[in-house]
Amino acid sequence: MKFNRSRKLYNEALNLMPGGVSSPVRAFKPHPFFVKKAKGSKIYDVDGNEFIDYCMAYGALILGHANDEVRFEIEKKLREGWIYGTPIELEIKYAKLIRKYYPSIEMLRFVNTGSEATMSALRLARGFTGKEKIVKVEGSFHGSHDSVLVKAGSGATTFGVPNSAGIPIDFVKKTLQVPFNDLELLSDVLEKNEDVSAVIMEPVMGNSSLIIPDKDYLREVRKITQEKDVLLIFDEIITGFRIAMGGAQEYYGVKADITTLGKIAGGGFPIGIYGSKKEIMERVAPSGDVYQAGTFSGNPISLLAGYTTLKILEKRGIVNKVAKKAEKLCEALKDSLKRVEVAQIASMFCIYFGKSPKNYSEALKLDKEAYMKFFWRLIEKKVFFPPSQFEVCFMSDSHSEEDIEKTFNAIIEAYETQNWYQG
Ligand SMILES: *Cc1c(COP(=O)(O)O)cnc(C)c1O
User: Which residue's CA is the closest to the ligand 1 atom numbered 5?
Assistant: First the structure.
């Protein structure tokens, strides 16, 4: 397989952008491939290689690349302009559609990215409760702002250490960490800290490989936070419209106080959404005293792409359909792969080089080098998995039976040849 042009572009990019990329995970070794175009389940690089894509823009796409119906709506809309800096009717239609699937959301605000949504949700939680600390789950990812770029320090209940230079120590001190699937430590932290405004978590963790909550874990988290009068924020930026139309809240029957959405909600265009009950959301400016604003917020194109996507999902029951496809592939893989483990929930799945983890510290034990070897073997077989063991694979509506069969064979071959992985 040739990557001449990608290599050339990457060398040029390295002089122009840190790591040659616009977001770190894209910079995999020895070089990323540069993409020319994508359609449906396929992504095409600048050297003419074609891959079946399971990265799907890190979960932003569920219909597949460049869906025709979404494209048609956007092309039509572009003739009327694409940003106005004024309210548009679609905001109302879209807000109502979201409210239908997320009963915990009575009001919401459209923003531009997931990071912005979680940043604003946390500010709102602090503003509403008047308390400054937050509790987050080790290894959960909520974007790249100061409050959440904190990783666990030694001992889960102590202050963490920043994940990045440039984060004021005072922010770190306000961000407490607990392991996923551990109710005792959560209770403990909330017992010992009176000034906690909110617990924020990915209800299904999708940024430290795939970590699925234990039975009743989320329900108990809800109970504990309610008892302690602490807001519960579900970051459903991956799970929203993915594991169910109503996200993890529908799937597990648990209501969050504040919800963040993104990725699928923009139909492939930049978006973030945060929402809550009226009493809480009315604290946001201009009706309230928690300030948040954005030039591109409620962007007509993002809203239209997202709205059109959700209507398609709704009309064709795609969330379940795609889940069944992923389940079929994963069940076959479970039967065939011996030294790795496979987990799947709806259209999210993951092959673990090691034991399927229950929390972040277990995820850290996965064999990341073996995964990357496997990744490149898959690339040779024209299958693009996310370039890190810590990312999740996404099935889309555009993956055909044939794609899935090819993928199954590619995985088995990539895995079996030379017996290179001993577990
Ligand atoms: C992707 C992601 C974010 C950040 O969203 P951006 O649009 O990249 O800023 C936040 N939370 C979760 C769970 C995510 O997966």
Answer: 114
Number of domains in the chain: 2
Contacts of 35 (CB under 8 A, 6+ apart): 43, 44, 45, 46
C-alpha distances (whole Å) from 410 to each of 263, 374, 377 are: 28, 10, 9
153 with 198, same domain? yes
Q: Are 101 and 14 part of one and the same domain?
A: no
Residue 280 and residue 215 share a domain: yes
Do the beta carbons of residue 176 and residue 150 sit within 8 Å? Answer: no
Q: What pLDDT, in 10s, does the model give residues 193-228?
A: 999 999 999 999 999 999 999 999 999 999 999 999
Residue 163 has a pLDDT of 83
Enclosing domain of residue 241: 68-315
Closest atom of ligand 1 relative to the 202 alpha carbon: 13
Residues 13, 87: one domain?
no
Atom of ligand 1 nearest to the CA of 272: 7
- Other residues' Cβ atoms within 10 Å of the Cβ of residue 86: 7
* Residue 304 half-sphere exposure toward CB, CA atoms < 13 A: 19
Q: pLDDT at residue 405 above 70? A: yes
Domain stop point among 315, 337, 362: 315
User: Do 227 and 88 have their domain in common?
Assistant: yes
Q: What is the CATH number of the domain that holds 308?
A: 3.40.640.10
Ligand 1 interacting residues, C-beta cut-off 6 A: 113-115, 118, 141-143, 202, 206-207, 235, 237-238, 262, 272
Q: Residue 156 pLDDT more than 50?
A: no
| For ligand 1, atom 8: residue with the closest CA | 114
Same domain membership, residue 42 and residue 72: no
Query: What token pair was written down for 408?
Result: 């199954």
Best mutation site among 147, 237, 274 for ligand 1, i.e. most ligand atoms within 8 A of its Cβ? 237
In the listed set 249, 282, 315, which residue is the last one of a domain according to the structure? 315
Which one of 22, 23, 25, 118 would you pick to mutate in the ligand 1 pocket, going by the greatest count of ligand atoms within 8 A of its CB? 118
162 CA distance to ligand 1 centroid (A)? Answer: 18
Q: Are residues 296 and 155 in the same domain?
A: yes
Do 83 and 41 share a domain, yes or no? Answer: no
Evaluate whether 314 touches 245 at the Cβ level (below 8 Å): yes
Q: What is the pLDDT of residues 253-298, one digit of tens each?
A: 999 999 999 999 999 999 999 999 999 999 999 999 999 999 999 9
Residue from 115, 241, 390 to probe ligand 1 pocket by mutation (most atoms less than 8 Å from CB): 115
